[in-house]
Amino acid sequence: MWTESSCRAVLGFFSSSVRSTALRDTGAARRRRMVFLMLFVRFLVLGALCASVSHGLDITSTGSATFEKASGEAVMLSCQFNLAPEDTGPLDIEWSQLASDNQKEDKVIILYSGDRAYEDYNPAMKGRVHFNSPDPKNGDASINLTSLQPSDTGTYQCKVKKAPGIRSRKMQLTVMVRPSKPACSTVGPSHLGKDVQLKCVSSEGTNPVQYTWEKTSDTKVLPATAVMDSTGSTLNVRNASNSASGTYRCTARNRVGMDDCTLNLRVVPAPNTAGIIAGAVIGVLLALILIAIILFCCYRARNRKKYEKEMSYEIKEDVPPPKSRVSTARSFTSVGSQRSSVGSMSPSNLHEYAAKSMYNALPSEEYDRPPSQAPVAPLSRTAGPNLSRMGAVPVMVPAQNRDGSIV
């Protein structure tokens, strides 16, 4: 029985024979034409026989097997196939994401078996993978992947089985992230005669991300002294002049997308640093002087309060003398007088005792006054002898000054 491999082998053999015979034949032109005619007839007969050979199950998709898509986009992985009459077994279609490591298992993402599609087979791709045809058994096993993610990057295999035929096809999918909107900024001051750096950085984006700078104002030409780094993210404008002022645009791009930002550069003369330093020194000195004045005023106010407090302690009011000392001294005088009077009392001097009773009376308000306030009565010459005759005992009463202390 003729097979595809045997037909190819025979055709290859006769093709090589024709070429070798044509090279070896150096005879007459008539003989050469006869040889070519015979070989050509044999070639046609074998071609007809091989064309009648059945190929069985075969995948006929011939499109690209490599895809590069941006995150969030969709892609269709093609897998068209043909069936032969001898393929009588049940039809099974299996799509899987091959593991990059041989130690790991392949991940099946979608199945078709028993006239039924299983599209939610892989939880990571649930709702994002579908068969392109509502009935894959008609020869279309292609699938659609939607809302692509960077984790979807990998090698995918379409395997079609219908016993005894088995065929498969592999495709490579790369999911890339578009560059995010870059941020444009200047590094350092933009002064005349100084080097100015313009930076452009995109926080997201699958590498390689390339940056390009262009001037969109005035002459729309970058300064002659402008130099970009290897990736183009930094533009160095050396010895900046007034002509470098203007609007610049930076574009970040990779294989799946691009975005840009703008920057307005204004080159100005350098400030007078000497004047700034002098002003700063003067400001510091004024601040120190003000602080010294505040501290001096606080110190003076504190000393004044302390002086007034000490003066209030030195000024004292007149304090009346204690009554206990005066009354004690007078009580001793009264007791002594009573004892003397009682001891010398007789019928002959009763009238004298009666006269003494006036001294036994309680002291009046006049005697309660301090010595400094009580009126002083003039002493007569006969007061001393009369008191002695009446039996009075002389007692010395201590004197007091105006503030009440005993002298």
TrEMBL record:
One of its GO terms (molecular function) is virus receptor activity. It comes from the Eukaryota. Its main location: membrane. It is a single-pass type I membrane protein. GO terms for cellular component: adherens junction; basolateral plasma membrane; bicellular tight junction; cell surface; intercalated disc. It holds the Pfam family V-set. Signal peptide: none annotated. Residues 72-174, 182-264 form the Ig-like domain. It is found in: Basolateral cell membrane; Cell junction, Adherens junction; Cell junction, Tight junction. One of its GO terms (biological process) is homotypic cell-cell adhesion. Keywords: Cell adhesion, Cell junction, Cell membrane, Disulfide bond, Glycoprotein, Immunoglobulin domain, Membrane, Receptor, Repeat, Signal, Tight junction, Transmembrane, Transmembrane helix. Residues 325-348 have a biased composition (Polar residues). Residues 317-348, 364-407 are annotated as: Disordered. InterPro entries: EJ_Adhesion_Regulator, Ig-like_dom, Ig-like_dom_sf, Ig-like_fold, Ig_sub, Ig_sub2, Ig_V-set, Immunoglobulin_dom. The chain crosses the membrane at residues 34-57, 276-299. This is CXADR Ig-like cell adhesion molecule.
